[in-house]
Automatic annotation (TrEMBL):
PANTHER family: ACROSIN-RELATED, HYALIN
InterPro entries in the cross-refs: Peptidase_S1_PA, Peptidase_S1_PA_chymotrypsin, Peptidase_S1A, Trypsin_dom, TRYPSIN_HIS, TRYPSIN_SER
Protein name listed in UniProt: Trypsin
A molecular function (GO) term: serine-type endopeptidase activity
SUPFAM superfamilies assigned: Trypsin-like serine proteases
Keywords: Disulfide bond, Hydrolase, Protease, Serine protease, Signal
Record lineage: Bacteria, Bacillati, Actinomycetota, Actinomycetes, Micromonosporales
Gene3D superfamilies listed in its UniProt record: Trypsin-like serine proteases
Signal peptide start-end: 1-31
Length: 265
């Protein structure tokens, strides 16, 4: 049921991406009618300039993280098929998307996870036409060691279901939710080794439309940021008993690394 709605949502998102040149995503197609929707605020706060310097905004209305000077890690559902693609603009280095100090770079190639079919495997790499060497990259988790605890999420997406995209980057923290618990909420839809859930049972804090593709991250043993998730989907935003669902980066770390190498690093 929710899967079916997700498909519709994806089709709608694709349509928006195709018809609108820049983003304006989109009341999720599965949002309940207004009368039925509490004004769920995503529950975040403004990020400070420089706090998450690896954050990327993509012109189709998604987030991403700088994986290497030339590569942005995002969600498969944010991009089209693998191949040459010069139509995406990445904005980097700023919390304010209108800032005159923003860096803007075009894409020249998209690599979408092999086997991606709308369910799981929700990752992709976008190659930038010009390397960005003035910003730090975000390293990815290569084992499940950090697939627990409290995570930070960030993005320019909606602050409530059906809400507007944001000019200023926002952040929130959300606790890990086990696959078993997440599957009990989502009726078994979670692909345990490909997806990782996070959120409060009471709701109130979550990623939302337009945050997709952005990183979910935490501190590692050396107190460095490490990416454990990619914002992927959820039933609405911040609803009780519907945590956010994120791509489990550790599962795909070696596939991401090989793809990155094949794209020139
Ligand atoms: N699929 C959404 C996007 O394209 C992200 C949804 C995240 N939803 C959530 N409840 N955590 O931006």
């Amino acid at each position: 049921m929710v899967r079916w709605r997700r498909l519709i949502g994806r089709l709608a998102a694709a349509l928006v991406a195709v018809t609108a040149g820049s983003f304006v995503l989109a009341v999720p197609a599965h949002a309940k009618p207004a009368s039925d929707v509490t004004p769920y605020v995503v529950g975040g706060t403004l990020a400070a300039q420089g706090e998450f310097p690896f954050m990327v905004r993509l012109s189709m209305g998604c987030g991403g993280a700088l994986y290497s000077p030339r590569l942005v890690l995002t969600a498969a559902h944010c991009v089209g098929r693998t191949g040459t693609n010069t139509s995406i603009t990445a904005t980097l280095g700023v919390v304010d998307l209108q800032s005159s100090s923003r860096i803007q770079v075009r894409s020249n190639y998209v690599y979408r996870a092999p086997g991606y079919n709308g369910s799981g495997k929700d990752w992709a790499l976008i190659r930038l036409a010009t390397p960005v060497t003035t910003l730090p990259t975000l390293k990815i988790a290569t084992s499940t060691a950090y697939d627990n605890g409290t995570f930070t999420v960030a993005g320019w997406g909606a602050t409530r279901e059906g809400g507007a995209q944001q000019r200023y980057l926002r952040k929130a923290t959300v606790p890990f939710v086990s696959d078993a618990t997440c599957n009990s909420y989502y009726g078994g839809q979670i692909i345990a080794n490909e997806e990782i859930c996070a959120g409060y049972a009471s709701g109130g804090v979550d990623t939302c439309q337009g945050d997709s593709g952005g990183p979910m991250f935490r501190r590692d043993a050396n107190n460095a940021w490490i990416q454990v998730g990619i914002t992927s989907w959820g039933n609405g935003c911040a609803r009780p008993n519907y945590p956010g669902v994120y791509t489990q980066v550790s599962t795909f770390a070696s596939a991401i690394a090989s793809a990155a190498a094949s794209l020139g690093g």
